């Protein structure tokens, strides 16, 4: 029996992931690095102002908060792009699905650029919250996102901790550890924060010293409610995210792509994102649709197919690389859309200590077929299946690779069957087996009446040959045994 402490539910621990440059990341994650100065703008109080910019723009003197016109005058070649809040909200939904692989309690907190994850229940799998937070930061960086993480017993405290890189474990210490934070760190409306600063409040602990009734009388009930949820005095229920049953994402490229090989980098990031979503939902894909957007030309469509469902990004990249070998771009690519219209239940295969097991051989054949289909086309690669027919030349037919083969009962036949029987002269032969009479096909005009023998010739080859039953006209060679 387990000790009582081991049966207790883990204490709640919320991990906050902040994405301070989300809007800019959506514009730049399609390339590995750019020296082009880029800034994000938004209209505030009827004036267009810079809200974020990349390192190249910062080095040129551009700063968040300055008017967009002034930024353009400071730095030649600066690209200023309007912020797209709807694209940011959609990205948060996709990232919530991606985070589902680490916790099944994921929240998208309204208008904030970030996510909440309950990390206490996942500690046995992924370690303590600080380790999980660093892992999320690294893996989100691989997807093209700048992330900051922090942990605390309440969601609001975790949000503040993420801005400072803190990982707080005790609710009793929240006042002491978060008290020195300036008011600008708190998630409060700008006018409310401004009024508090005018009254002399500078830090969170200045507010915590006052009675709640006094705060409510001065600033309304919203502030007291926020502080109580921050400290864990009042419950803070959150609507949990539920991943969709399909996957679709779109990537706007910061610069045009003219070469097919240059598509590998942005698509690798999209595949990594997709496979994270698949792992979170315990699902897999067998087909993908990639749409390449052009400026003055209809979109280019790529269909990728697998022989069995997978959630392995490396396998997807292998098929993509082969497919791009035969792609000719009609125009430069401006955007990429990746869709997985159907998510299938993932069945993980068992790993063996020894190589060359039947499952591994089957997987090797499947992956070879996938590469050949991607390079040559879907219809260029196929298989064979059995047909219930006594005539040897009609006992098989071609089949598509995704078609289930039919099992037909076959007699002892050579591995090498000639396309057509050939008249031959066999001398000094030895009959090893036979005759086997085959008389069939009268109903379709291709009837045959043959007596088949297994014959060894003078050179030692084992042949499959026959005589015509009526009339006899010598030997016909139909196959050769290995």
Could you give a quick summary of the protein structure above?
The chain has 482 residues and is α+β, with helices and mostly antiparallel strands. It has helices at 22-28, 55-59, 68-74, 85-99, 123-126, 129-142, 155-164, 174-178, 190-198, 204-208, 212-219, 221-231, 264-281, 313-325, 358-376; strands spanning 14-18, 38-44, 47-53, 79-82, 106-107, 114-118, 148-152, 247-257, 283-293, 300-310, 333-340, 344-345, 382-386, 396-400, 416-424, 430-440, 448-456, 462-468, 475-480.
Could you give the count of β-strands? 19
CATH superfamily (homologous) name of the largest domain: Reverse transcriptase/Diguanylate cyclase domain
Work out the strand percent.
25-35%
- How much helicity do the residues have? 25-40%
**Which second-level CATH architecture of the largest domain applies?**
2-Layer Sandwich
CATH class of the largest domain: Alpha Beta
What is the tally of helical segments?
A: 15
Overall radius of gyration? 34 Å
Which blocks of ≥5 consecutive residues have pLDDT under 50? 1-7
Which fold name corresponds to the CATH topology of the largest domain? Answer: Alpha-Beta Plaits
Question: How would you describe this protein?
Answer:
This protein has 482 residues and is an alpha+beta fold. It folds into three domains: 14-36 and 77-231, Alpha-Beta Plaits (2-Layer Sandwich); 247-370, DNA polymerase, Y-family, little finger domain (Dna Ligase, domain 1), CATH 3.30.1490.100; 416-480. Helix content is 31%, strand content 27%. The protein has helices spanning 22-28, 55-59, 68-74, 85-99, 123-126, 129-142, 155-164, 174-178, 190-198, 204-208, 212-219, 221-231, 264-281, 313-325, 358-376, and strands spanning 14-18, 38-44, 47-53, 79-82, 106-107, 114-118, 148-152, 247-257, 283-293, 300-310, 333-340, 344-345, 382-386, 396-400, 416-424, 430-440, 448-456, 462-468, 475-480. The strands form five sheets. Strands 8, 9, 10, 11 and 12 form a five-stranded antiparallel sheet that branches. Strands 15-19-18-17-16 form a five-stranded antiparallel sheet, with no helix packed on it. Strand 16 (430-440) and strand 17 form a beta hairpin. Helix 4 (85-99) packs across helix 13 (264-281) and helix 11 (212-219) packs across helix 12 (221-231). The longest helix is centred in the last third of the chain and has 19 residues, at 358-376. It is elongated and about 115 Å long.
């Amino acid at each position: 029996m387990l000790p009582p402490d081991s049966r207790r539910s883990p204490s709640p621990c919320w991990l906050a992931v902040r994405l301070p440059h989300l809007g800019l990341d959506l514009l730049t994650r399609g390339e590995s690095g750019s020296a082009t100065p880029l800034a994000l703008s938004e209209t505030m109080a009827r004036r267009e102002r810079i809200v974020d910019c990349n390192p190249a723009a910062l080095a040129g003197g551009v700063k968040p908060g300055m008017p967009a016109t002034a930024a353009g005058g400071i730095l030649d070649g600066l690209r200023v792009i309007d912020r797209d809040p709807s694209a940011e909200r959609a990205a948060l939904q996709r990232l919530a699905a991606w985070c589902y692989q680490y916790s099944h309690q994921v929240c998208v907190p309204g208008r904030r650029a970030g996510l909440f994850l309950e990390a206490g229940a996942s500690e046995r799998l992924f370690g303590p919250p600080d380790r999980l937070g660093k892992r999320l930061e690294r893996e989100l960086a691989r997807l093209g996102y700048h992330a900051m993480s922090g942990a605390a017993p309440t969601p609001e405290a975790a949000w503040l901790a993420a801005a400072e890189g803190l990982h707080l474990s005790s609710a009793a210490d929240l006042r002491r550890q978060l008290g020195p934070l300036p008011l600008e760190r708190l998630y409060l409306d700008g006018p409310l924060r401004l009024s508090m600063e005018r009254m002399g409040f500078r830090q969170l602990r200045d507010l915590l010293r006052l009675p709640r009734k006094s705060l409510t009388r001065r600033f309304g009930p919203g502030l007291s409610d926020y502080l109580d949820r921050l400290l864990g005095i009042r419950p803070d229920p959150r609507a949990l995210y539920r991943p969709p049953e399909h996957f679709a994402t779109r990537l706007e490229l910061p610069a045009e792509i003219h070469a097919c090989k240059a598509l590998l980098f942005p698509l690798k990031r999209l595949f990594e994102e997709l496979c994270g979503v698949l792992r979170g939902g315990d699902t897999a894909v067998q087909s993908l649709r990639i749409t390449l957007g052009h400026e003055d030309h209809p979109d280019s469509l790529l269909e990728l197919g697998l022989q069995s469902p997978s959630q392995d990004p490396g396998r997807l990249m292998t098929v993509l690389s082969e497919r791009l070998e035969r792609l000719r771009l009609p125009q430069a690519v401006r955007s990429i859309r990746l869709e997985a219209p159907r998510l299938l239940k993932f069945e993980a295969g068992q790993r063996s200590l020894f190589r060359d097991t039947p499952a591994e051989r089957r997987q090797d054949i499947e992956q070879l077929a996938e590469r050949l289909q991607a390079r040559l086309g879907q219809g260029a690669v196929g298989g064979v299946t059995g047909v219930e027919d006594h005539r040897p030349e009609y006992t098989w037919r071609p089949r598509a690779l995704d078609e289930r083969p039919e099992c037909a009962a076959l007699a002892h036949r050579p591995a090498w069957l000639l396309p057509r029987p050939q008249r031959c002269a066999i001398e000094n032969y030895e009959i090893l087996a036979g005759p086997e009479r085959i008389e069939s096909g009268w109903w379709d005009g291709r009837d045959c009446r043959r007596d088949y023998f297994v014959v060894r010739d003078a050179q030692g080859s084992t042949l499959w040959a026959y005589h015509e039953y009526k009339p006899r006209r010598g030997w016909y060679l139909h196959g050769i045994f290995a």
